[in-house]
Amino acid sequence: xxxGLLVCGRCGSRLHVxxxxxxxxxxxxxxxxxxxxxxxxxxxxxGPLDACVAQEVLRALExxxxxxxxxxxxxxxxxxxxxxxxxxxxxxxxxYEAERAERPCRPSGSSKRTTIASxxxxxxx
Length: 125
Ligand SMILES: [Zn+2]
Prior knowledge:
Layout: E1 15-20, E2 24-29, H1 31-34, E3 44-45, H2 46-102, H3 109-124
Antiparallel strand pairs: 1-2, 2-3
Bound molecules: zinc ion (ZN).
């Protein structure tokens, strides 16, 4: 996980990952391979260090994740409020249409004219 990011505390060289007994990961300094006059530096098992760094990374990300969750919650609340407002408007419109449909039919101006015209025709005929 941290290969190339860790630096040897003794010589300052970058640590690389090796596998001890082919299974356990191990951070080790390879300077003694490049420099024959350099004595071998101590290494360390990767498991506990990786776990510690992962825990710290998660702890550092926690406030950001919490902030994102709160923002998502606010966004959802805004969306719910907007949808509720739309449904209230639709409900109001449907009530208005229902009231309008229940009103007794009044003759409109054109039918009055038709009635007057037909009376005049009846008088002449
Ligand atoms: Zn070293």
